[in-house]
Automatic annotation (TrEMBL):
Signal sequence interval, chain numbering: none
Keywords, alphabetical: S-adenosyl-L-methionine, Transferase
Database matches in InterPro entries: Meroterpenoid_MTases, SAM-dependent_MTases_sf
Name this protein carries in UniProt: Uncharacterized protein
GO molecular function, one term: transferase activity
Protein family: Belongs to the class I-like SAM-binding methyltransferase superfamily.
Taxonomic superkingdom: Eukaryota
Pathway listed: Secondary metabolite biosynthesis
Provenance organism: Macrolepiota fuliginosa MF-IS2
């Protein structure tokens, strides 16, 4: 999400690291229409290898993008219900990489015309089309290539507590920045990138996201990040020293962003692997 260069290839690219789960393989087969398992694996690793040569994020080398983690989040089913029941509800996928999680959300029922994604590297979106064998015409979700900290992409402002005076943009594909969407987004997906920043930058990021959230009850920012039982800077991970919140400090962060008592923060700490 920043304009900083991607990390050097700390992890050698190894196609054998691809381990598709049954449900994830089924989703890829449906999207790509490649039924043969070996052919599908080669297709995925070929696209990932090209992307990794240019943008060497460990999550690409470890094939984390094949796991569709969004559907495993506790809030996921309520998010899908929101998209189906609230007229015109918009979903934003942040740091979207290949758009893999957004595609899962759409396949599970969120109207595609009401979705938009952002990533600092526009080429990722193109690799996503190659990976899932789609085109801008067959997969016309909105996309913005840019840095969410850049005021030309998203102008800083306070969260909305009343409906915005500006109208909801009707065609998300024509947008060149997120600013017209401030106060209009019903669901914001935030997966695995808060911890890449120090505490002050995390607060800035939270404020940027908060400015986009609709004040309508039920609107939600959801996702997962690396955490710790006690707030601290985590052990170095592939060249990063992630800033990790505890459940308590995570709640405190959002209380600094929104007026206290205006949002409910639900969080839980789970043991598991971390990728960046």
């Amino acid at each position: 999400m920043t304009t900083e260069p991607a990390p050097k290839q700390i992890i050698p690219f190894d196609p054998s690291l691809l381990k598709l789960g049954e449900e994830d393989a089924k989703f890829f087969k449906t999207c790509t229409r490649i039924e043969d398992g070996e052919e599908l694996a080669k297709h995925i690793t070929d696209v990932a290898a090209k992307a990794y040569e240019v943008f060497s994020w460990p999550c690409i080398a470890l094939f984390e993008f094949t796991k569709f983690k969004v559907s495993r989040l506790p809030a996921y089913q309520s998010v899908i219900k929101l998209g189906q029941e609230r007229p015109g509800a918009i979903l934003l996928d942040t740091a979207c990489c290949f758009g893999n999680d957004l595609r899962k959300v759409i396949s599970d029922g969120w109207p595609m015309e009401n979705t938009i994604a952002i990533d600092v590297e526009p080429a990722f979106w193109g690799y996503g089309h190659e990976l899932f064998k789609s085109t801008p015409e067959t997969f016309p979700a909105g996309f913005i290539g840019g840095d969410i900290f850049d005021p030309s992409i998203l102008r800083p402002r306070q969260p909305f507590y009343q409906p915005p005076a500006t109208p909801r943009p009707q065609n998300l594909r024509t947008l060149e920045s997120l600013t017209p969407l401030q106060g209009h987004i019903s669901a914001i997906c935030v997966l695995w990138f808060f911890h890449l920043y120090g505490e002050e930058k995390q607060i800035e990021l939270a404020k940027q996201l908060a400015s986009l959230l609709s004040p309508e009850p039920g609107s939600v920012i959801f996702g997962s990040q690396r955490g710790e039982p006690i707030k601290k800077t985590g052990d170095s991970l592939w060249g990063y020293s992630p800033m990790c919140h505890s459940p308590e400090s995570w709640k405190e962060l959002w209380d600094r962003v929104f007026k206290k008592g205006t949002v409910r923060v639900e969080t839980e700490l789970e043991e598991g692997a971390c990728t960046v």
